[in-house]
Request: fold
Amino acid sequence: MDTSPTPADPVSPRQKTPDQYRNYEAEARSTVKEFYRQNHAHQTVDFVLAKKKEYLGLNRKRMRVWEALEYLETLVDDSDPDTDLTQIEHAMQTAEAIRRADQPRWFIVTGLIHDLGKMMCLWGEPQWAVVGDTFPVGCAFSEKIVYPEFLELNPDRHHPVYSTRLGIYEEGVGLDRVHLSWGHDEYIYHVVKDRLPLGALYALRYHSFYPWHKEGAYEYLTNAQDRENLKWVKAFNRYDLYSKGDGQPDTRGLRPYYEDLVNEFFPEPLNW
Reply:
């Protein structure tokens, strides 16, 4: 299996230049700022641990990947200033950008499924508990987190341990042992972690961890494996983010190709 990343940008027309994406000062929807106010106020250590206990037993439903994609059809992400597409449209948009760049099939399917954890919104979770940028809890918050001023609303900000640089962690502990704010990345990682290569799993688990992969924060928590696989997260992010200017994909016309791809990697229903 070829696991070498190709650094080329997605080959696609863009309606924005790279520095115009994730522009939270000129946001696309007024819901974005309110989303992050709620997210930063409520994503605490206690909340994250409770959600892991609630969801990571993977005993809610048994469902095929394509069924999960269709399940998300009605969801629009309130944290995203760059798109109003439904989740299945964005999934195909990302996967198509990867396919046009002649990447391996396992990387294409990663693009297709990367946001499937957002189905938690359809199970009653508020969007602030599912989508948006992720960040570590249990240690000091970085100023590189989007809307850092809202972190003043988080009770962990004033905790005697959680507010320190290392908090509950050790230097170089490795991201696998760091609790990130709860969301769809962690959930989909656990659903598929035994079925895809390590590079794909890093892309799934950390694609929303922008303070690390974009801003370089929290390096002191990473280990050698994290630093080696950061290239996968960065490579994936180009397709996830910059494909959003590509317009609405032909989901019906593309379906046969992607059904075949899904059956190759996920022939059986998965536990969710």
